[in-house]
Amino acid sequence: MKIVVTGASGYIGRHVVNELLNNGHKVIAVDIVNNGINPKAQYSNVDIFAGDLDVYGKLGEPDVCIHLAWKDGFVHNSKAHMDYLSSHYRFLCNMIDGGCKRISVMGTMHEIGFWEGKIDQNTPCNPLSQYGIAKNALRQSLLLYAKDKDVNIYWLRAYYILGDDVKNHSIFTKILQAAEEGKNEFPFTSGQAKYDFIEVDELAKQIAKTSTQDEYTGIINVCSGNPISLADRVESFLKEKGLNIKLAYGAFPDREYDSKIVYGDSTIIEKIMKKC
């Protein structure tokens, strides 16, 4: 297939581009910069937020659009989330109206807000951050717009992503930075909250496979389905990397919008990965 990937130079985008290329697809990598994008992909700096009605044509009339581009994704209360919301919506609508038959968009567990337990496609949403609010609004608007149109919409709801940690902005990145600075202690929360962790390379595989099949559409959890406490995962990370840093438990309070245990229902993604 010919596949457009927006945000192709981003943390997740680079891995998705590589996975698609490995699977034999032609990739059009879209971003404002060409940093770290596999040279086997065709790079494009088309402004997807310009409101161009012919953006589908200018991107080469792809079979699939995987929309990963998102400003300040790691800054949950950035103003950019709401500032760019309408631009994301217009771009995706223009791609649909142009003729793109498969639209795949990166979602987030933060659409849900505070929730304890397993999340599936019917879990109610009450987002508690600007990031979650914007993603939730985009999902609702996009699914409504596409309801009676000849297009597959894949809303890929992601959870706690790690791996390639130097380029990430997670707690694992901060720990590596602390190690480089020679620190032997790292301020930490209680670490008791349990999350659905997934390596970015595995996430890229799930995104690529889901976006190129037609059997399952709508909200799809891209996840492990296995909740692990933050403390256990970070302690494992320290051992894996051979870091002599101790966690200062309780130095920071747990965020009020983080659930005590939250993980994705992996039923659909497991079926997709087995078939493909």
Q: What does this protein look like?
A:
With 276 residues, this protein is of the alpha/beta class. It has helices at residues 13-22, 55-58, 80-83, 85-98, 130-145, 171-180, 200-211, 230-241, 267-275, and strands at residues 2-6, 26-30, 42-44, 64-67, 102-108, 117-119, 152-158, 160-162, 185-187, 194-199, 218-222, 227-229, 246-248, 262-264. The strands form 4 sheets. Strands 3-2-1-4-5-7-11 form a 7-stranded parallel sheet, with helices on both faces. α1 links the parallel β1 (2-6) and β2 (26-30). It starts with a strand and ends with a helix.
From the helix content, strand content and strand pairing, which structural class follows?
Answer: alpha/beta
Determine the strand fraction and express it as a percent band.
15-25%
Please mark out the parts with pLDDT under 50 across 5 or more consecutive residues, or reply none: none
End-to-end distance: 15 Å
Helix coverage percent: 25-40%
Estimated radius of gyration? 19 Å
Instruction: List the secondary-structure elements in sequence, H or E.
Output: EHEEHEHHEEHEEHEEHEEHEEH
If helices are DSSP runs of H or I spanning 4 or more residues, what is the number of helices? 9
> Tally of extended strands?
14
Assembly annotation: single chain
Short description:
With 276 residues, this protein is α/β, with parallel strands linked by helices.
What key attributes describe this structure?
globular; 2 domains; 7-stranded parallel β-sheet; 3-stranded mixed β-sheet; alpha/beta; 276 residues; 22% strand; Rossmann fold
Layout of helices and strands:
Layout: E1 2-6, H1 13-22, E2 26-30, E3 42-44, H2 55-58, E4 64-67, H3 80-83, H4 85-98, E5 102-108, E6 117-119, H5 130-145, E7 152-158, E8 160-162, H6 171-180, E9 185-187, E10 194-199, H7 200-211, E11 218-222, E12 227-229, H8 230-241, E13 246-248, E14 262-264, H9 267-275
Parallel strand pairs: 1-2, 1-4, 2-3, 4-5, 5-7, 6-14, 7-11, 8-10, 9-13
Antiparallel strand pairs: 10-12
Helix pairs in contact: 1-7, 4-5
